[in-house]
Design a protein that fits this description.
GO terms for molecular function: ribosome binding. It comes from Merops nubicus (Northern carmine bee-eater). This is MAIP1 protein. This protein is α+β, with helices and mostly antiparallel strands and 142 residues long. It has one domain. Strand 4 and strand 5 form a beta hairpin. Helix 1 runs antiparallel to helix 3. The protein is elongated, with a radius of gyration of 17 Å.
């Protein structure tokens, strides 16, 4: 889900995110994505094979005022991306030189992070669909 959503964000195909992302988050994303420079939009995309590490940041089970049961999982992703970003971006990014084939042809990759929160209702009879309720790409999507 992270890879699919991040690529759709990068391509500005926000209409395809209706079933995956909460309406509140989608509205904020529409505003932010329209203001991003192209290189930052490119840096949002995470290919599945470029995801280096994932970890859960927070897992919560809670009930709303109507007694419905929810589970929320905050996931953090580290991924490599070849977008044309400056070498010195403060904070979250690190730059690596990756050699593919010929030593003289080095390709620069940034190690970027993203936080996505997934939520699902577990009340009996509820649809078993996960929804993304938070999307953060530090230093890119602020």
């Amino acid at each position: 889900a992270f890879s699919v959503v991040s690529k759709l964000l990068s391509q500005r195909k926000l209409d395809l995110l209706d079933e995956l992302v909460s309406a509140e988050v989608l509205q904020v994303l529409k505003e932010k994505i329209s203001l991003l420079p192209e290189n930052h939009r490119d840096a949002l995309a995470a290919e599945v094979d470029a995801i280096m590490y994932t970890t859960e940041g927070d897992v919560r089970i809670y009930y709303d005022d109507d007694g419905r049961k929810f589970v929320s999982i905050l996931m953090r992703f580290w991924y490599l991306n070849g977008a044309n970003l400056p070498d010195e971006v403060p904070g979250e990014t690190k730059v690596f030189q990756v050699v593919f084939g010929d030593e003289s042809m080095k390709e620069k990759r940034h190690l970027l992070t993203a936080n996505y929160e997934f939520q699902r209702e577990f009340t009996e009879g509820a649809k078993p669909d996960w929804t993304i309720t938070r999307i953060e790409h530090p230093r890119l999507l602020e």
